[in-house]
Amino acid sequence: MVYRETGPSSVLQAVELDDPTPGAGEVVVRVVRSGINPTDWKFRAGAMGGMPGGFDQVAPGQDGAGRVEAVGEGVSDLAVGDPVWLFMAQSGRPVGTAAELSVQPVERVTRLPEGAGFDLGANLGVPAITAHRALTVGDVPRLAPGALDGRVVLVAGGAGAVGNAAVQLARWAGATVITTVSSPEKAALAEAAGAHHVVDYRREDVVARVRAIAPDGVHQVVEVAPAQNLALDLEVVAQHATIGFYANNGGDEMTLPVRGAFAKNVALVGVLLYSVRPDLLRAAADDVTAAVAAGALRVGEDAGLPLHHYPLDELAAAHDAVEGGAVGKVLVDVTDA
User: Fold this and answer.
1) Most Cβ neighbours (<10 Å): which of 13, 94, 265, 272?
2) For the chain, what is the mean pLDDT?
3) CATH assignment at residue 71
4) Interacting residues of 242 by C-beta distance below 8 A, sequence separation 6+
5) Predicted local confidence at residue 229, as pLDDT
6) Range of 42's domain?
7) Where do the coiled-coil regions begin and end (predicted)?
């Protein structure tokens, strides 16, 4: 499924392309599942500029999972038939995961641990790596069991895909996890994800609740709406806390309470995967894969992330569902497992 101009989801169309051949350091993956993220429809709609990469034709999809179909020269860690997950598959390339076959640099292809399904694999790119980066922009550069022992993490929007991954990763690393949500239904999802404490910001005093839970302050904030929440975050964080923000929900500009920030020695760090250093992306992918192998990252309603499946020829409807704010994860079934 491709688009040749930016615009509404109706610009997406089915085409037949020649099967790709891997070059040196590349892998061809038969995509089983594609994960849809907000940036996918935003790029398609032109909200991020013109045609991505200046390409004449783009098959979208940054995230996906499938099996290795072919490997190029110099690839030794993967073999034909291996189950894998992909991240940033369409970044700088014309064909992402909305295609039966996608050729990718081996650095963006990671073997799925035994027992991990393709539904989970297609959710490990943008959501899980973004969550990892937001959790590690401070003085804890890697996640593993015990890495966040004794720390309190506040996840804004714990029912979203990134929030869900942040809750699960932070808990796996040993943190006490607080999350904010906007409804009782989303509270149930955040609890299913493993949050220790859930605060409904529309019905509760967030500052009072968080201070009661963490009287010494929050050490790390994973923030989806900094324009709305920055002042609140500064009220509840501890000295030398870090606020990692990855979206502009609720506004494109924010006001910084200067004294409140420097008085607590707070670091405010933006997170956008497309400009993150390759070594940091690789570290995140390795840590995320370790969490999957440990059973710490899950998807599905019982993990707080309901799944919504669409066939490949209904990619436009899948994009519309994400743009419309679907609760959970939208997946596209590309080929048979």
Assistant:
1) 94
2) 97
3) 3.90.180.10
4) 137, 138, 139, 219, 220, 221, 266, 267, 268, 269
5) 96
6) 9-123+305-333
7) none
